[in-house]
Write a structure and sequence with these properties.
This protein is an alpha/beta fold and 322 residues long. It folds into two domains: 142 residues, Glycogen Phosphorylase B (Rossmann fold, 3-Layer(aba) Sandwich); 158 residues, Glycogen Phosphorylase B (Rossmann fold, 3-Layer(aba) Sandwich), CATH 3.40.50. The strands form two sheets. It has a six-stranded parallel beta sheet with strand order 2-1-3-4-5-6, sandwiched between helices. The chain has a six-stranded parallel beta sheet with strand order 9-8-7-10-11-12, with helices on both faces. The N and C termini lie close together (9 Å).
C-alpha cells in the first residue's frame, strides 16, 4: 500500500512531530507499505493519507479529501489541536469531520474529542527504542534533563527558574536540549547559561545523542503547559529514568492519575521542592523510578507496531482500505 505521511514540521527542525513521523514511517515500512513523508500533500496518488496535526495540516487534509472522496484519511490530533484549537479554529474541526479515523496519543485525550467523532478515534501510544549500552548517570552531580524546542507551550525555562531556588548544597544541574524557535527564547537561554551555574543549554542535538543524554540522567523534567503526548516521556520510560511532570492531561494520560511526580503547571516553587525531594529522598526517588519502569511496556516499539497493524486491519475489514 502506498502511504503519504504529512507532518508540518520543517526538516530543519527536529521536533516531536518530526520524530513521530520518522518512527511511524519505519513502522509502516516494516509492515510492508511504501511510505513518503512530506510537509504538504502534493496531489500524487496514494492509497492512504496520514496527517499529523489537524490544524497545521488542514490544507493537505482538505485537498486530499477534495480529490479523493472515498480514500481513507487518518488525522492525528496533537496537543495544540486538543487543548487549544478545537475550540478556536474551524479548520481543526473540519479536519475531524473529513477524517476516516482519528488518532490520539494517550487515553485522556479521548475525552477531549467531541462526542460525534469518538467512534472513529483510536489511541496509539508513542514508543521509543531502548538505548544500546549502559548509560550511567554522572556521580559528581544530579543530572536533570529537559528536552524540547524552546517555545511557549513547553514552558522551557521552568526548570531553570526552579534551580535558582535550590539550597546551596544541592548537586542538581539542569541540562536543556532544544532549538530556540525565536530570538527572544535564544537570548533568554544564553542569559541563563551565563548567569546560572546550575544550568547549561546545549541547543539542538542529534536525536541519538539526546537519547543517550536522557538515558544517562538521574531525572527528566517535563514542564509543558500543553502536550498531546510526549516522545521524551516515552524515551525516559523505556530507559527507566524517572520524571517530574506538570500535571496536564497529555502527561497524566500516560503516567496515570496517581503518579507522585507531578507539580502544578507553571509553579516554580512546587517544581523546586519536587526536584529537591527527588535528589535527597532516596525512597521517594525509587518510588518514581519503579513506577516509570512498570510503564515501560506501554511505550515498547512492539506495542506501537501492533497498534498500527490492528488499525490498518480494522480499516481493511471494513473496506475503508481499497
Amino acid at each position: 500500500m502506498r502511504i503519504r505521511l504529512i507532518t508540518p514540521s520543517p526538516k530543519a527542525v527536529l521536533d516531536g512531530n518530526r520524530v513521530t513521523a520518522r518512527r511511524w514511517a519505519r513502522i509502516l515500512r516494516d509492515l510492508d507499505h511504501q511510505v513518503i513523508v512530506q510537509n504538504q500533500y502534493d496531489g500524487d496518488s496514494c492509497h492512504l493519507l496520514i496527517a499529523l496535526h489537524a490544524f497545521k495540516s488542514f490544507e493537505s487534509v482538505r485537498q486530499f479529501r477534495e480529490h479523493h472522496l472515498k480514500k481513507p484519511l487518518i488525522v492525528v490530533l496533537t496537543g495544540t489541536d486538543l487543548y487549544r484549537d478545537l475550540g478556536q479554529r474551524s479548520q481543526t474541526r473540519c479536519s475531524l469531520k473529513l477524517a476516516t479515523r482519528l488518532i490520539v496519543l494517550q487515553k485522556q485525550a479521548f475525552a477531549e474529542v467531541p462526542e460525534p467523532f469518538r467512534e472513529k478515534t483510536r489511541v496509539i501510544y508513542q514508543s521509543a527504542e531502548p538505548v544500546k549500552g549502559e548509560q550511567a548517570p554522572p556521580k559528581r552531580y544530579f543530572r536533570v534533563c529537559v528536552v524540547g524546542n524552546l517555545r511557549p507551550e513547553k514552558d522551557p525555562f521552568r526548570g531553570a527558574l526552579a534551580s535558582h531556588q535550590l539550597a546551596v548544597g544541592s548537586r542538581i544541574r539542569i541540562l536543556q536540549v532544544g532549538q530556540a524557535l525565536s530570538r527572544e527564547m535564544e537570548k533568554r537561554a544564553l542569559h541563563e547559561n551565563r548567569t546560572n551555574p546550575r544550568y547549561r543549554w546545549l541547543g539542538s542535538l542529534p536525536h541519538g545523542r539526546t537519547r543517550r543524554l536522557v538515558a544517562g540522567s538521574h531525572l527528566v523534567a517535563l514542564t509543558s503547559r500543553m502536550e498531546g503526548s510526549s516522545n521524551v516521556l516515552s524515551e525516559a520510560l523505556i530507559s527507566s529514568v524517572p520524571v517530574v511532570a506538570s500535571r496536564i492531561p497529555g502527561l497524566v494520560g500516560t503516567l496515570g492519575e496517581n503518579y507522585q511526580g507531578y507539580f502544578p503547571v507553571g509553579d516554580t516553587k512546587a517544581l523546586a521542592r519536587l526536584l529537591r525531594r527527588t535528589e535527597m529522598d532516596r525512597e521517594f526517588y525509587q518510588q518514581l523510578k519503579a513506577h516509570c519502569t512498570r510503564l515501560a511496556p506501554l511505550v515498547h516499539p512492539q506495542r506501537e507496531r501492533a497498534s498500527w497493524q490492528r488499525l490498518l486491519e480494522e480499516m481493511w475489514s471494513k473496506k475503508e482500505l481499497l
